[in-house]
Amino acid sequence: MSRKIPKAEQRLxxxxxxxxxxxxxxxxxxxxxxxFVEGREGGPTVAPGDVVDIRIVNRxxxxxEAVAERVHSYSPVRTEPFCEHFGxxxxxxxxxxxxxxxxxxxxxQVVDHLSRIGKVELPAIRPxxxxxxxxxxxxxxxxxxxxxxxxxxxxxRSDAPIDKRAVGFHIPKRFDKVLPIRHCYLQPDPSNAIxxxxxxxxxxxxxxxxxxKTHTGYLRTLIIRTASTGQVMVIVQVAQDRPELxxxxxxxxxxxxxxxTSLNYxxxxxxxxxxxxxxxxxxxxxxxIEERMEDLTFRVGPKSFYQTNSQQAYQxxxxxxxxxxxxxxxxxxxxxxxxxxxxxxxARQARQVVGIEYVESAVEDxxxxxxxxxxxxxxxxxxxxxxxxxxxxxxxYGAPDVVITDPPRAGMDEAVTRTLxxxxxxxxxxxxxxxxxxARDLAILDEGYSVKDVQPxxxxxHTQHVENIVVLEKRS
Length: 476
Ligand SMILES: C[S@@+](CC[C@H](N)C(=O)[O-])C[C@H]1O[C@@H](n2cnc3c(N)ncnc32)[C@H](O)[C@@H]1O
Known about the structure:
Elements: E1 11-16, E2 19-20, E3 26-30, E4 33-38, E5 51-59, E6 63-73, H1 99-118, E7 140-146, H2 153-157, E8 166-171, E9 174-180, H3 191-204, E10 219-226, E11 232-238, H4 243-256, E12 260-267, E13 281-284, E14 289-293, E15 296-300, H5 310-324, E16 331-335, H6 341-347, E17 352-357, H7 360-372, E18 378-382, H8 385-388, H9 391-397, E19 402-405, H10 414-423, E20 427-432, H11 435-445, E21 449-457, E22 467-474
Parallel strand pairs: 4-6, 11-12, 16-17, 16-19, 17-18, 19-20
Antiparallel strand pairs: 1-5, 2-3, 3-4, 5-6, 7-8, 7-10, 8-9, 10-11, 12-13, 14-15, 20-22, 21-22
Helix pairs in contact: 1-11, 3-4
């Protein structure tokens, strides 16, 4: 619950920022408790080591929240952000922090979670594995086409008529406002060129963009997927069935970008832009692009999940496979398998792989990918983990020798963790995108397993996110 803030307590001056915190915020420790501080639109950004004046905007029982008003001295961890949209876009919140410092903060986050929440005995935690590419590392971006462009202070004050259509990213916490992006450093070419071409085409042909408040307009989103094979997928999402508007736009894209190998569209008449439940119509090229990893080919469809930093996904999988220490005789369970990529990546070193995942289309993708790669010792099962992972399943497919688990941010259900304890595989490799929930699960697994090695991996440079791999061995 928020409490009213007495006037005298609303502002604090020249306070030292101690650390990073979740969601790109920073943390200040005071005698009165913790304050989470963030920068503000048009104002200063914050970094650990800065000395700042802050304004308290929210007061809860456990902590206070503040925005920075002025920076008195800048931290040595800072560097110059490279993107003109930094500070407004919200996409890469750590661009103003040096990359090696980002890696240090990410490792510290893992150390803090595993030691404070997990409270298990730990080996030395390795330094964060850097991402080879720190720019243009994403293989998928979804841009929003909107009526309500974000206006600069200058534009707000101006009387001149302004075209408020935009193709770009949502402003943080403003679902109806979109920042037009001139250049994005997240995805390789031709991502920027395609987005700019669609914007120009829409402006030149008077195509209305969707308005999320009034639910009017036509163009909704532009999804671009790129692959390490050079293949490119584009999906244009529109709000109405108007072929006379759509076909010329798609023809234009085909002419301008012969690099597009898979061109698709979606007619989404719902009130929101999510398209997992929508039909994707393929107009040119196959309805997928291909990623390659060692001798494997993965087909990635318009709705398929694929790790967004392909190069670093390879590093993540390689460590996972190394730590699984397979000799060819093991039955491996790949829990939360998504499109089966980890399971297929280790399959040639295992006797059998069983992958479990609740998104049915992902399981279908996994089966297709097994067939495409001639892998016959991997089975993929669709269903909720807690329901599927039972002694009955082990009776049917055999008990696991090694488990690889890669759950969503919420971690594993306690029942699933306890089932693993009972199944007692020799080794568990736990890949996580949230070391706090991973630590909670490790505390339960501690009954039967000890942590042998910990490797934080940076999949998302310039963000606070960190992936973490832990290998556990059965206690003898
Ligand atoms: C972090 S992703 C794993 C990605 C995959 N290992 C890879 O590398 O591509 C987590 C996966 O767990 C699935 N999932 C989430 N909750 C689940 C549940 N209760 N039962 C089964 N699968 C679940 C999600 O659909 C998602 O594909």
